[in-house]
């Protein structure tokens, strides 16, 4: 039988030859040997300056003229001793500081920051109430007035009303008429109350008569009657 030949044989062979290179895995690499004439010389690695300009026709090159806007810096020597002496002579004398001594040993402290020296009364706005305080007081006063107005309005809504005289007279007449009717029924009761119903009926009429008499007396006693708005 024929021998088996893989289809990718040529491709694998080509890839293997492509990745090969001389001295890749065996021995040191072959590099060019330096020439014996190119040896390291002294000061060869130091930076070299630019070459100097040579004189032209035996004359030295003059520097360029400065621009017109150039102003040279002039260093003036100052005499600080004289300057300080003039400042001391012409200056105002130093005012003495006010001290306060409070012990026998001479312990003293500055008077101005102690609060004993009246320096704040000399200010222009001394004793003037700040605007923020005035504005706050006005706001509080306005809020208080609004609150009082709302309370009065609520009280007016819930205030008691006076009963008119005509209505008072009509109520009194109706109560007296009702009292007469119940009194007539009470007078019509039998003299002997031998049953429970008769006793209960008599007690009920007596209670109604007492309540009507109390209401009639109250209305007749007080001319002004107030009715609450419930």
TrEMBL record:
Source domain of life? Eukaryota
The record's subcellular location field reads: Cell projection, Cilium; Cytoplasm, Cytoskeleton
Per UniProt, residues of the Enkurin domain are 135-227
Pfam families in UniProt: Enkurin
- InterPro entries to which the protein is assigned, alphabetical: Enkurin_dom (IPR027012), Enkurin_domain-protein (IPR052102)
Read off the PROSITE patterns from this record: ENKURIN (PS51665)
Keywords, in A-Z order: Cell projection, Cytoplasm, Cytoskeleton
Q: Does the keyword Cytoplasm apply?
A: yes
Ranges of compositional bias, category Basic and acidic residues: 39-59
> What is the predominant subcellular site recorded for this chain?
other
- GO CC term (a single one): axonemal microtubule
Q: Which GO terms describe its molecular function?
A: calmodulin binding
> Residue ranges of region Disordered?
16-59
Q: Which residues form a coiled coil?
A: none
Protein name, entry field = ENKUR protein
Per the UniProt record, the source organism is Brachypodius melanocephalos
Q: What is the lineage of its organism?
A: Eukaryota, Metazoa, Chordata, Craniata, Vertebrata
């Amino acid at each position: 039988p024929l021998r088996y030949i893989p289809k990718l044989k040529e491709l694998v062979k080509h890839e293997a030859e492509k990745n090969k290179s001389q001295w890749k895995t065996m021995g040191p690499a072959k590099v060019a040997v330096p020439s014996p004439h190119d040896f390291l010389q002294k000061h060869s690695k130091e930076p070299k300056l630019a070459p100097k300009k040579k004189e032209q026709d035996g004359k030295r090159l003059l520097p360029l003229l400065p621009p017109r806007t150039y102003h040279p810096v002039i260093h003036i020597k100052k005499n600080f001793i004289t300057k300080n002496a003039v400042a001391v002579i012409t200056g105002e004398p130093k005012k003495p500081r006010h001290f306060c001594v409070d012990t026998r040993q001479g312990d003293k402290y500055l008077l101005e920051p102690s609060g004993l020296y009246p320096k704040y009364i000399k200010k222009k706005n001394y004793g003037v109430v700040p605007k923020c305080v005035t504005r706050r007081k006005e706001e509080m006063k306005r809020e208080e007035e609004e609150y009082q107005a709302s309370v009065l309005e609520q009280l007016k809504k819930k205030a008691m009303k006076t009963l008119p005289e005509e209505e008072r007279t009509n109520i009194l007449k109706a109560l007296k008429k009702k009292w007469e009717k119940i009194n007539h029924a009470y007078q019509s009761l039998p003299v002997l109350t031998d049953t429970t119903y008769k006793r209960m009926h008599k007690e009920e009429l007596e209670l109604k008569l007492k309540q009507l008499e109390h209401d009639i007396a109250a209305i007749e006693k007080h001319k002004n009657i107030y009715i609450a708005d419930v």
